[in-house]
Amino acid sequence: MPLGERAGFEKSQSRYRGVETAFNDNMPQLLNFNLSTGAFDFVVAPLMNPSYRPSLLEKDGVLPFAASDLVLSPSPWSSHVVGKISSWIDLDSEDETLRMDSETTLKQEIAWANHLSIQACILPSPKGASCANYARCVNQILLGLNNMQAPFVIQIYFPIIFFPFLFSFIVAVLILITSLLKLWLRILLVKTDDDDVMDANSTSFIDSWELWNAFCLLCEHHSQLFVALNILSSLPSVNSLGCWFGEPVTAAIINMDVSIFWFPCDLLHAAPMMMRVLNGAIFNLPVFPSKWTGLSMPVKVPSKADYWVLLPFNTVCYFLLLYINFPYSELSFRCFTVVVLMDDLVCKDIPSGHIWTVLVISSKVWIPFLSKNVELGYRDFLQSPLQPLMDNLEAQTYETFERDSKKYIQYQRAISKALLDRVPDEEASAVCKLPFAFPNPILVLMVVGAGHGPLVRASLQATEETGHKLKVYPVEKNPHAVVTLHSLVKLEGWEDIVTKISCDMRCWDAPEKADILVSELLGSLGDNELSPECLDGAQRFLKQDGISISSSYVKSHKDLVHFETAYVVKLHNVARLAPSQTVFTFTHPDYSTKKSIQRYKRLQFEIACDTGSAMVHGMFAIFFPPKTPVCMKPGSPLEVHFWRCCGSSKVWCEWCVTSPDSSAIHNISGRSYWVGL
Ligand SMILES: C[S@@+](CC[C@H](N)C(=O)[O-])C[C@H]1O[C@@H](n2cnc3c(N)ncnc32)[C@H](O)[C@@H]1O
């Protein structure tokens, strides 16, 4: 269930705005006051009286600690309230009474939030660098939340069988139960080199990411634990900010007073001026004094469509930004949404225009970027790579390939160029002008691994574009795909031009040689669909001066078995710590006699010093995980070794890390992950 209901928006939490309030016993009034204008969708409210201390109970008998749950029906609790855990709690305090009070209060507040079916609670920031006891209690709570879920589900499924009419009720309850309470840990985003930010009781610096990482490790990276970044008036370096993009950041709490704005990064230099112009001219918003825009802070959002958030700082109220980082969001790039989080007392001092600024910007800026994006369902989802040589792909897989229209456009362009290279325009037109019947030269093109035929279509479209004539041989070893190919040829009336070949390209006895050999066997790693093996087998029927498309490619980028396997994954929630590097290169055709398709490469990745500490969980475009994540200290390089090994029935990779520390060699002899020949 989303935090609030907002008409006209697609359903993703990224659209919702909240306002932070002081404790108020009268929750209906609090909601009415803060949500009635439509500016906010939910409140971030303390659930317990801040004066409550368990140790004082016996003396003063301070009960009840909160208002009755019945003041609201379950639905508003769940969709309009985020719980704010008491900020005074300090579970790592030297003071035993405070520590014990903190633990009891934390557990009571979470249990109360859970009872109210609240979706999320914001936990206060750890008070110092040492947070082991805090993390231990949070981990216990998270474990308890999970355990609470199972019996409910069993009880609920049971009557569905016998009482189908209860279905709608049951679905509603199931939704509540399956949306487990999430915990957002507030972390102050501080610069590692910021002299002002010191551990309260020692001289050591508190690195925000290290603090979060330590907490998260202690909680075993629990999936219900998120980070809410509290951005202060000075930002860490862009590189160290990048580390957060690999973390489950659900919110950023920002001290600021007016507005935020988005700019494509190439407008960055003009940003402060543009911000004023756009505010006034396009969005019809208040134009703020230039001294505010001068304070703008660019936050780089490292994504495909790099966008920047500009944050004019002035500590009056808090703005909370939620990542649009949900796998099913329809937005095609990573971005933030605006959630205003401010104390309602402070709120009174802020002209309403400022709130409207946030409202209008957040509604207008999102809409142009909405797009149906086929990759969204695959984000951050680890998939075992396909083995199209050994296995026969399913129809659905071909359909997924075919949705990548950009790929086929690029192929069509390459084929057009190859056609022009083989028969330049002048030559073709000279042939046409001859007085006697002398046919245009007909080029031979072979699509090896044709699948359902999208590359055959791209080839024929290229002939229309260039006016050249072609004879096409699609070669496909998957008999099911050949059936589809057959129908396509018939349906399109290509029988005179296209001759289907149903066999493995490595053993096909071609009736003639090809001018152009087209293939798409790269996979995510360049060679994991075994293009070197297949194309070496196919180059027999490419003319000596023929053209291969693609012609060269590089390896760009369980227990034991799962950590010795490469995965296909559309990485989205990721911090890219260093630029990608070339690993292996293959060239086609390759007539050298002493060639080997085994490879070895050692690579060093330099990570910018101002990145701070970081954790490496994997490498390359196809994801190779190290068995144990590699902890990087500022300034130390990552050294990895990579081997491509070939046997008589399989091809596999082995890899290891040798710096900053040495790992074992992964996947030795292809014991866990290999590609069958
Ligand atoms: C990645 S798919 C590409 C399919 C199609 N060209 C496309 O773009 O949709 C690779 C195709 O090559 C076929 N293939 C793989 N190895 C082959 C071989 N040795 N001989 C013939 N076909 C092969 C697979 O069956 C599969 O259909």
How would you portray this structure in words?
Belongs to the class I-like SAM-binding methyltransferase superfamily. One of its GO terms (molecular function) is protein-arginine N-methyltransferase activity. The protein has 677 residues and is α/β, with parallel strands linked by helices. It folds into three domains: 13-151 and 180-374, Divalent-metal-dependent TIM barrel enzymes (TIM Barrel, Alpha-Beta Barrel); 395-550, Rossmann fold (3-Layer(aba) Sandwich); 569-676, Hnrnp arginine n-methyltransferase1 (Distorted Sandwich). The protein is 31% helix and 20% strand. The chain has 19 helices and 25 strands. Strand 16, helix 18 and strand 17 form a beta-alpha-beta unit. It starts with 17 loop residues before the first strand and ends with a strand. Mean pLDDT is 70; it is low at 5-15, 148-178, 194-203 and 255-373. Bound molecules: S-adenosylmethionine. S-adenosylmethionine (SAM) is lined by residues 388-389, 393, 398, 401-402, 449-451, 454-455, 475-478, 481, 504-506, 520-521, 529, 534.
